[in-house]
Amino acid sequence: MHADNFNPLAKIFYRPIDAALRWCELVQYEAEIVKADWYCPKRLGSLFPQWPCLQANLERLYDAMRNGELPYGHFGVSVPMGTPLESVSLTVRHADLRLWMQRHSPDQRPEFLFDSDDDTHANIKPAAYLSLQTERDALLQECTKLQRQMSERKAVALEQRPLSERSEHIQ
Q1: Are strands 77-78 and 13-14 parallel, antiparallel or unpaired?
Q2: Which end of the chain has fewer CB within 10 Å, C or N?
Q3: Residues 122 and 102: beta-carbon distance below 8 Å
Q4: Are 151 and 135 in contact (CB under 8 A)?
Q5: Inter-helix orientation angle 30-39/16-23, to 10°
Q6: How many other CB atoms sit within 10 Å of the CB of residue 58?
């Protein structure tokens, strides 16, 4: 990032609440939201009913981490998926969050993750992305099917070889 392209909302890593409030464009209420999250995280939805996106996006982030879609870490240092962490130290790297957002919410480009000058994916329509993703998934299934068939054919060919060729030579 160039000095003239500094994004004051961006961080190297985020706690889930930091990412969710930035995603909802609630940075001006950051201190209030973070304080509430610290003392009673399970009550965020009832404390801030005027911002339903906050709880929804926070749940999306936790769900993505639980299901292996979004890598997470301990105070910004990545850990293997499935590693249990205290919620206080749980973080997501900027690069991982950005990549997850591109894959799972291509229609959303929150300012804290995507520079306004960043046109890398700006011209891709969500419908086109979803179409390409569907095509890719179908091709992966076809590839898996063909690999399975090839393995089965190799097994059949091995069974059809004479016993003397299949057994190991004992010396």
Answers
A1: unpaired
A2: C
A3: no
A4: no
A5: 140
A6: 22
SS3 annotation, 105-127: CCCCCCCCCCCCCCCCCCCCCHH
* Helix, strand, coil % in the chain, rounded to nearest 5: 55, 5, 40
CA 89 to chain CA centroid, nearest Å: 18
- Which pLDDT belongs to residue 117? 54
Alpha-carbon distance values, 9 to 12, 74, 130 (Å): 10, 21, 29
Domain boundaries along the sequence of the chain = 3-104, 131-166
Q: What angle do CA 5, 9, 14 make, to 5 degrees?
A: 125
Give the Cα separation of 86 and 44 in Å (integer): 18
List, for residues 44-81, the tens digit of each pLDDT value.
Answer: 888 999 999 999 999 999 999 999 999 999 998 999 98
